[in-house]
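Methods, example record. To illustrate the input and output format used throughout this study, we show the complete record for GTP cyclohydrolase 1 type 2 homolog. The sequence lines were provided to the predictor; the line carrying structure tokens was produced by it.
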Amino acid sequence: MAIALAALVEEADRYLNAARINDYCPNGLQVEGRPQVLRIVSGVTASQALIEAAVEAEADVLLVHHGYFWKGENPCITGMKQRRLKTLLANDISLLAYHLPLDVHPEVGNNVQLAAQLGITVEGELEPDNPRTVGLVGSLDEAMSARDFAHRVHEVLGREPLLVDGGEVIRRVGWCTGGGQGYIDQAVAAGVDLYLTGEASEQTFHSARENGISFIAAGHHATERYGVQALGDYLARRFAIEHLFIDCPNPI
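The corresponding predicted structure is encoded as:
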């Protein structure tokens, strides 16, 4: 049975407590489509490829982590943005997007979901005294070398990670999905053996080497596939509707 779009959006906003987070983009309903929902398609980024896949799957709602209307971007609806929005509107598909609220949620968040995939026990926040903290710290289910852990990451995510091997046994891990390489200093301060995120910058190599920790960049897209799936599954169970996750490959 179909449910009202407004009810779906209200529950997603409430469950993620989206209003409490000052973000770089609007969270929630970004594009309004048909008023009734039978099927959600979820994915990481609202790219043209994902939108077209949602059209093919006859989705009523496209649920993503990376939506539109970021602070500082050109507000004009031209080029790529025009084509994406035109496809959504022409097919009456709603776009529902959650950025930081989906990173930090304690149940369906990207960071806790990645930990579950990689066998990491969550112990706390990377910066417990910072109200805007995103990353987490925890321990592995068994101590291992950095190379062995990188192999686990490869097997789980299906992507060869970039590894800076500090040479120490890995027990305690810090991580932040996506573009969280800038948190490596906080990870060092937290006393981790290895810090994992999606991307790397040139200086990340030196920070890891000179502070004696290992570092893994496992891919922005690859590390953020799991939160939106978990949120889609939650909404599907809550309202007895259909949910399909579609992964559009992205090597970055």
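Annotations derived from this record:
The first strand starts at residue 3 and ends at 4.
The two ends are 38 Å apart (CA to CA).
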